[in-house]
Amino acid sequence: QVQLVESGGGLVQPGGSLRLSCAASRSIFSSGTMGWYRQAPGKQRELVSTFTSGGSTNYADFVKGRFTISRDNAKNTVYLQMNSLKPEDTAVYYCNAVIVLRDGTVYDYWGQGTQVTVSS
């Protein structure tokens, strides 16, 4: 069973920063698309950012340049640097890994989630 190990959540004031971390196995990290999603209470999970093994990044519009996704290949870890945080960023943040086999089979893995709370 693949494990996605998350850390970095916490309580910050508006305008503050946090960096989330997520580690995956080397094989999945090297071949899959890593991403971050978030889910606020009573709301559906939404995409925040993705980073493919080929180096392409994707950001939701609401990030507006505040968040940066990055990868450390030596550590098999993806990061989400969150700056200028707003109260509406409050949510549980989930790490995600997607791999697609040559026959089209899709494997979709999730971390346990880490709480981010932005409040004064």
Give a written overview of the molecule:
The protein has one helix at residues 26-31; strands spanning 5-7, 10-12, 18-23, 33-39, 46-51, 57-59, 67-72, 77-82, 91-100, 106-110, 114-118. With 120 residues, it is mainly β. Strand 7 (67-72) and strand 8 form a beta hairpin.
| Average pLDDT figure | 93
The gross shape turns out to be globular
Number of helices: 1
Biggest sheet: strands, sense, closure? 7 strands, mixed
Got a strand count? 11
Helix content: under 10%
Uncertain spans:
none
Helix-strand makeup class: mainly beta
Order of helices and strands: EEEHEEEEEEEE
Rg on CA atoms, Å: 14 Å
Q: CA-to-CA gap between the ends? A: 40 Å
What percentage of the residues does DSSP assign to strands (E)?
A: over 45%
Which helices and strands appear, and what pairs or packs with what?
Layout: E1 5-7, E2 10-12, E3 18-23, H1 26-31, E4 33-39, E5 46-51, E6 57-59, E7 67-72, E8 77-82, E9 91-100, E10 106-110, E11 114-118
Parallel strand pairs: 2-11
Antiparallel strand pairs: 1-3, 3-8, 4-5, 4-9, 5-6, 7-8, 9-10, 9-11
